[in-house]
Amino acid sequence: MGKLFVLVFLAGILIELSGCRSHSGKGSGSKPRTGWLSRVFGRKKDRNESSSYKSKDIEKVIQVARSYKGTPHRDGGVSRLGIDCSALIMLSFKEAGLTVPRTARQQSELGRMIDKTELRPGDLVFFADRKIGSGITHVGLVTEVTGKGEVKFIHTSSRLGVTENLLSTSYFAKTYAKAVRPF
Q1: What are 8-19's pLDDT values in tens digits?
Q2: Could you tell me if 137 and 128 are in contact, meaning their C-beta atoms sit under 8 angstroms apart?
């Protein structure tokens, strides 16, 4: 019985890990996926209520992301020589000791979906440009929400590299798909 549990457990880990290797740009559903290991061991995917993601973590994530400003955009890039949108998010969270998946599509499945009116620093905003492909094609990190409700986010631009923009800019308003609170 014990050996069977170990085999099932290891098989489950392999299945979950193999799902993390997909770099498909295909869209995701509106519900975050929860792996069976999380369900078995009671780990919450919605870490919004978790004490591990505090304002100091959010500040660190934003500080790291801003340190990449001006870094050129490079598809598949994961360094200061060139970086893509999802790598910027992944590396910024990693510096704060938080793990997020590699691709924008996978990142869009984290935590819980929130309304645009609920955005606060540390949330992730996702975009779907139908000209580029189906589903989630871009991700940014909310850095600031003004008293007037203006939302500023950091992301990679193909022309400007890592930069901050307002969510209300026409292109982003038109391609906005969803937002999530990752932890």
Answers
A1: 444 443 333 333
A2: yes
From 20, 23, 73, 155, the catalytic residue: 155
pLDDT per residue over 117-157, tens digit each?
Answer: 999 999 999 999 877 777 999 999 999 999 889 999 999 99
Residue found under tokens 């969803």: 178
Cβ distance 105 to 116 under 8 Å? Answer: no
Active-site residue, from 20, 23, 73, 85: 85
Long-range contacts of 16-20 (CB under 8 A, 24+ apart): 20/101, 20/102, 20/106
pTM of the complete model: 0.72
Residue 155 among the catalytic residues: yes
Tokens 């990190």 label which residue?
141
Quote the Cα angle for 13-18-21, to 5°.
135
138 catalytic, yes or no? yes
Q: Two tokens at 132?
A: 């580029």
